[in-house]
Amino acid sequence: MPSSNPLPPKENALFKRILKSYEHKQYKNGLKFAKQILSNPKFQEHGETLAMKGLTLNCLGRKEEAYEYVRRGLRNDLKSHVCWHVYGLLQRSDKKYDEAIKCYRNALKWDKDNIQILRDLSLLQIQMRDLEGYRDTRYQLLMLRPTQRASWIGYAMSFHLLEDYKNALSILDTFLDQQLKHATADYEHSELLLYQNLVIQESGDLQFALNHLDIYSAQIVDKLTLKENLAELNLKQSNYNLSARIYEELINRNPENTMYYEKLIKAKQLTTEEDILDFYLKYAEKYPRAMPPKRLPLNYATGEQFKNLVDKYMRKALSKGVPPLFVDLRSLYKNAEKVRIIEDLILSYVDSLKKCSKYSESKNGPKEPASAILWVYYFLAQHYDYLKQTDKALHYIETAIEHTPTLIELFVTKGRIYKHAGNPIEAYRCLDEAQAMDTADRYINSKCAKYMLRANLIKEAEDICAKFTREGVSAMENLNEMQCMWFQTECALAYQRLGKYGDALKKCHEVDRHFSEIIEDQFDFHTYCMRKMTLRSYVGLLRLEDVLRGHPFYFKAAKCAIEVYLHLFDVPLKDESAEQELNTGESRTFKLPTFVPDITQKLIAFVGFPTKKGITHLHLSPYISDVAPLAFILLPWLKRVIKRRCQGLG
């Protein structure tokens, strides 16, 4: 649609050069051309030129001027789709997505078939999960560009996300019917077929999904995914023989995948302990280097059979010196009988190795390496630590350190034992000693920093981390830049324990900002995935982002911040200087995080808060924003807190 206030040819040519300069990021040139138009008294209030100048200024970081020019442009030309589109782009750059959507809709009133505005609108709608609006916008794009693949895929996906599988499949079928038959394998076409099969599976028609894979198997390039889907679908449809054959092929391809063995047991309909153990024995002989056929039988075996199997398994690992042996067997500790058997065996190893350097005095054969008893001590220390027998755990780890005082893993485990015993200071000292043995090991460095934070040694933890952060930037700043959330959550908890509530809240706010940035990063994939046809991964990304704030890091940060706010409610700040200290955190200007007060208020509004005067509500901060989902995650925890406080009030 032409502008409601068109320019003469000369000025129109300059305006086109402004657009080209913006597209090529030549912002200074764009400002120069805008100045040439606006310097003419006849066009000094030309709306679209003013709007484009504002957009260019925004790209140069001059936001206040940008908004001033764009609003001025809108006032002079309210019927211009360009002005409304530019205003929407400004709102989007400030993450005001609802306002940006309104601007795009206003722009479409004056140019309803503008492809670029429709695309920008669809991006915001999928970002905000306005799925009905997204479906309608994708339909308009399909009507305007019916020959483009992305138009069809986007429209089909909108129905898929709305769980309208029938329409999604109908659109995909129509699109595929229009495509040329693929004589050779094509990755993008293959991904489209696998995506179509995903939609069929989610619709619940498993037999149709199975038939679909059989028909198009020659055109699917990803043979691993094809076989996994065929095996799973045949298993669900009770085609056990066919499913078993495919899982056997998959195990032959990758004998280290534990899921394949579990699925094959289901396909072979093995239910008794004896049959399952025979099954694993067969595969242990067939794949002697594979670990799952040796480890997985321990989950099923009992009594004397378990003793024989675990004895053989542990001896081999201890002789080779496998540090994570205990972690590997830890899942068996849910069974008290298996714990007793493992303990008896490992203690017998100690006695025999001391006497004859063998695991059993009664057996002939070569002696075990000198390191074998070291790994037995190491295992026993972890074993007793898990059973909360701290004295025995410390005895064996000290014995191991006396045997080999240069092994870093021993000091790490010693620190972990002290941590579990509730002594963070001694735990940190052990990790500090381990870190000093190998200053180039980043993992040990990070572990040491974490234990320092648990001991409330924040400055020392920052100094330790500085060994692996970028030069010329403070460690805290670089860790924040790298979204190192384990450090920031532990740091927040340390500040909370020290009573530095402003700094604690600041760290919680940083964690919240990281999650917001992760959500923002979706924008890069909305168009990329449509173009590259990575559709299954894209749907997985969207579903992950929907539950992102249920992540443990976010939960820990929010829980810490809510505890701080509840403490401030119970023990209010007494003077303005203390309040200023809270808000600034060592004299640095800091605005309290928006998400925590909001969640706390929502929770308190729902369950109430008991005081001696009755049920009351919190009014924690003027900075309130709507981020409710975490409220439901934290609700059970807060209810328990409130119940305890109720009991305390008598």
TrEMBL record:
Sorted alphabetically, the keyword list is: Repeat, TPR repeat
Which GO cellular component terms are attached? Answer: NatA complex
**Which InterPro entries does the record associate with it?**
NatA_aux_su (IPR021183), TPR-like_helical_dom_sf (IPR011990), TPR_rpt (IPR019734)
Top-rank taxon of the source lineage equals: Eukaryota
Pfam family of the protein (one): NatA_aux_su
> What residue spans do the TPR repeats cover?
81-114
Per its record, how is this protein called by name? N-alpha-acetyltransferase 15, NatA auxiliary subunit
The answer to whether UniProt assigns keyword Cytoplasm to this entry is: no
